[in-house]
Automatic annotation (TrEMBL):
The name this protein goes by in its record: ATP-dependent DNA helicase
Gene (UniProt): LOC105272833
Domain Helitron helicase-like, residue spans: 6-176
Keyword S-adenosyl-L-methionine: no
Annotated keywords: ATP-binding, DNA damage, DNA recombination, DNA repair, Helicase, Hydrolase, Nucleotide-binding
GO MF entry, a single one: ATP binding
Length: 860
């Protein structure tokens, strides 16, 4: 775009920003439309599937069910693209080891180059095109300093990613691998390149001002604090007289306590608030540049996962068609719904700039069984087109062909081939094949990961990692001139899967690129589907990797317990448990999520429920018995058409809680499963084994009309809800409409029953009289002050050590002086009925038994 004084668009301010974003969104929409429309004509199938298709094409012309729209990994910024780039980066880690430096560079809107090129009265935000160009130039210059000027030494590999803050400014994350002779291994070497202290003002005033302006953390806002109000970045840091290399990958930099404070961004700061930096970078680029040492492999996955985090949400639509469900999975819609585009990002994308780059190209190698390679076919193809598709080959098949014609290739495994050969079309035919590489040797090969549940494919991949020079699938299955029937038996003959080595290798490889939660899921799949001989040895070897995410907030032992408990939870979701594996350590103190209701029920015998139910039933009045009898008849009835929803209304003190308790014991005596709950925690503790409504049904906070439950359909919480026969919910009027609607939707879904609450018996209770009047859209100014004289002054001493002290202070004097009028106005407020019964009992003991008189009434 020409930068002329008469260019009206450049003077548009926010309107110009919107125009830039709209222009790029149009471009992206066209690309997304191509992906959507292309899926209607192109389908990926296996070779064998295509052969079957040729034989029955006329019968299978319209065999697709449901709708699945995929956003491919070739679309920049898509979740699949981020995942593939992350795994590509981890392939570089496998070859060169952990990175040595983690550098973050953030754009400075006050750069001289920006201010000198914006128009009069404009700010950097008004010209995202200039911000984009200047940051790109400075980003390239910083990379040039690292790679060519060798500021930190010889570089063997690097990865960088460009991201955009919500306010629009871009920043770069750069990970650098240094050659062995340039490794930063000592504290002195760290201090040479990185500082975490405020420089001396007299010695270097320029650096002093830059550090105070750009490298002081804080002041912390709510976004920077955890639930305990502490800084999530662990500031202020501890003072340290010398640099220490932390074994977990987070070095402790030198931060000497000078006893002086400097003013920065409205706060007083010392060395404890300094973000680590490189002095040369700060003085050259005049912006926030955080430089960190990566001292351990343990932190590598978090760094690479952080720079390739991408989007984190999902969108699934379920519709009903002809009495059966069709599941529609639309990744394009999900990408659009959660998309955020800033003006600077729009400019970068319009200019065609790459959002990430690596020192090495990574070739992704497919792994497939014989005649199961993926190919693309068009529904409109004729027979010749389909036959031509059969002749197309794959990288794996051509790898076998290469070993047959080129003896030099036999010294390499499948994963090593891309470093020495290039896959391209032959000049003699239209067929792609491997040819010897003549230039550009910065190439790494990586095979796509395979789940252990795909047993044959998993063992084929294991063979391709190990065996060199294979000429065919049959040759790969041949050991000592003996052809084995399966790839798994071949691995066994080679000793690759003896003593659980195959699962050890799977977890070892997964440890490199998987996050701890994913690794625990992989371990659970291995336990359930692969039946390792010694699962306890796998746990002992990888328990550090399994528990890495817990180690940030817990000590080592607690982290192991939490990881082990999560593995047990995952097993229960798969209808298994730790106890099914006899050699595994059994859960004792490792349990962190125990259902209190189940524990307490085990302590209450059937006889206790029968006895308590009979006693309490006899204490009910006539109306209460009618309610209890009605619900008991429905609960014991086999007629599914009978009404299953009830509401008990009554003012405070009318006995609603007593009715709930009576029903609980009577139904427990009949072997029924009851869930008691209330909208508030205080109300819930009055019920036997009562729970809060939010926890029981996974109600999210905040709650919206279209919110969904956090409970997954295959979880143990969902299984618990399915097994409940009667739900009792107190204080239902206090629950918002959205909460009850969410409960209704959740139970209908879990029970696959369109009746109210999924056909479950639902007993709601409460008192609408206790709800305060609500004035819609009113403010605090519309309230009325309580200006009457009915004020209560609490006594100076309000704490009693036990119930006896309370009774003595409140009741004894009044009773001894026989001031029964005052006694009628005296009360102790307690949260639980059991406390009320105890205090009343103590007070009655103070009465004179000789003057006791019993009063009876027709109705109580």
């Amino acid at each position: 775009m020409a930068d002329r004084d008469d260019n009206v668009i450049l003077k548009g301010g926010r309107l110009y920003q919107q125009w830039v974003v709209d222009s790029y969104v149009k471009i992206e929409k066209d690309r997304l439309n191509f992906c959507r429309q292309n899926q209607k004509t192109l389908r990926s199938d296996t070779y064998q599937g295509l052969v079957d298709h040729l034989q029955r094409r006329a019968n299978d012309a319209d065999s697709q069910v449901g709708k699945m729209v995929i956003l491919p990994s070739t679309f920049t910024g898509s979740p699949r693209n981020m995942l593939q780039n992350y795994q590509d980066a981890m392939a570089i880690v496998r070859k060169f080891g952990k990175p040595d430096l983690f550098i973050t560079m953030t754009c400075n809107p006050n750069w001289t180059e920006i201010k000198e090129n914006v128009l009069l009265c404009q700010t950097a935000s008004d010209r995202p095109d200039i911000v984009s160009r200047v940051f790109d130039i400075k980003k390239d210059e910083l990379i040039n300093d690292v790679l060519k000027k060798k500021l930190f030494g010889e570089v063997c590999a690097y990865v960088y990613v460009i991201e955009y803050q919500k306010r629009g400014l871009p920043h770069m994350h750069l990970l650098v691998n240094l050659k062995q002779n340039s490794k930063i291994l000592t504290s002195d070497a760290v201090d040479k390149y990185i500082s975490a202290e405020i420089p001396n003002r007299q010695v270097d005033p320029i650096l002093y001002n830059i550090v105070l302006r750009d490298m002081i953390h804080g002041p912390c806002g709510n976004w920077c604090k955890d639930e305990n109000g502490k800084c999530t970045k662990k500031f202020p840091k501890k003072f340290q007289d010398s640099t220490l290399m932390d074994e977990n990958g987070y070095p402790t930099y030198r931060r000497r306590n000078t006893g002086t404070y400097e003013r920065s961004n409205g706060q007083m700061a010392d060395n404890a608030f300094v973000v680590p930096y490189n002095a040369y970078f700060l003085k050259k680029f005049r912006c926030h540049i955080n430089v960190e040492i990566v001292s351990s492999i343990k932190s590598v996955k978090y760094l690479y996962k952080y720079i390739y985090k991408g989007h984190d949400s999902a969108s699934v639509i379920v519709s009903n068609a002809e009495n059966h469900n069709e599941i529609h999975h639309d990744e394009i819609r999900n990408f659009i719904d959660t998309r955020y585009v800033s003006p600077v990002e729009a400019c970068d994308r319009i200019y065609g700039r790459s959002l990430q780059n690596k020192s090495h190209s990574v070739i992704r190698l497919p792994v497939h069984l014989p005649n199961q390679q993926s190919i693309l076919i068009n529904d409109a193809d004729n027979e010749d087109g389909l036959r031509a598709a059969l002749e197309r080959t794959s990288m794996l098949v051509e790898y076998f062909s290469l070993n047959r014609r080129d003896p030099e290739a036999k010294i390499y495994t499948y994963g090593d081939i891309p470093t020495h050969y290039v896959f391209k079309k032959s000049l003699d035919s239209n067929r792609s094949m491997w040819a010897k590489r003549k230039t550009h040797f910065n190439v790494i090969g990586r095979m796509y990961s395979v789940s252990p549940t795909q047993s044959e494919l998993f063992h084929l991949r294991l063979l391709l990692i190990t065996v060199k020079g294979a000429t065919s699938f049959e040759n790969l299955r041949t050991v000592n001139d003996q052809l084995y029937d399966t790839f798994q038996s071949t691995c066994l003959a080679l000793g690759l899967i003896e003593d659980d080595q195959e699962w050890d290798r799977a977890l070892t490889e997964g440890e490199i690129w998987m996050m701890p939660r994913q690794l625990r899921h992989l371990f659970v799949r291995i336990l359930i589907y692969c039946h390792p001989n010694h699962p306890e040895q796998l746990w002992e070897k990888f328990k550090d990797a399994f528990s890495q995410d817990f180690q940030r907030n817990h000590n080592e032992a607690e982290s192991y317990k939490r990881a082990y408990a999560h593995i047990d939870t995952l097993l229960m979701n798969e209808r298994s448990c730790i106890s099914a594996f006899a050699t595994m350590p059994q859960l004792i103190e490792c349990e962190t999520d125990i259902d209190i209701d189940d524990v307490n029920d085990n302590q209450s015998s059937l006889e206790t429920h029968v006895s308590m139910g009979r006693i309490q039933y006899n204490q009910l009045n006539v109306k209460q018995k009618e309610i209890v009898d009605k619900i008991l008849n429905v609960a014991m009835s086999t007629d599914e058409r009978s009404s299953s929803c009830f509401y008990i209304d009554g003012p405070g003190g009318s006995g609603k809680t007593f009715v709930y308790t009576t029903l609980y014991h009577l139904l427990k005596a009949q072997g029924k499963s009851i869930c008691t709950m209330a909208f508030t925690g205080i109300a819930a503790i009055l019920l036997p084994h009562g729970k809060a409504l939010h926890k029981t049904f996974g109600i999210p906070v905040p709650l919206f009309p279209d919110s969904v439950s956090n409970i997954k359909s295959q979880s143990k919480d969902a299984e618990y809800l399915r097994n409940v026969d009667i739900f009792i919910c107190d204080e239902a009027p206090m629950a918002p409409r959205s909460a009850l609607e969410l409960i209704d939707r959740t139970l209908r879904y879990l029970m696959d029953n369109d009746s109210p609450f999924g056909g479950k018996i639902m007993l709601l209770g409460g008192d609408f009289r206790q709800l305060l009047p609500v004035t819609p859209n009113a403010t605090r100014c519309n309230g009325e002050l309580n200006d009457n004289d009915n004020n209560l002054l609490p006594p100076e001493q309000c704490i009693a050590s036990n119930a006896d002290d309370i009774v003595e202070v409140i009741f004894k004097t009044v009773i001894d002086e026989r001031r029964f009028g005052d006694l009628a106005k005296t009360a102790v407020l307690a949260a639980r009925n059991v406390d009320v019964d105890e205090i009343n009992g103590k007070a009655i003991e103070l009465l004179d038994e000789s003057t006791e008189r019993r009063y009876t009434g027709y109705k109580s």
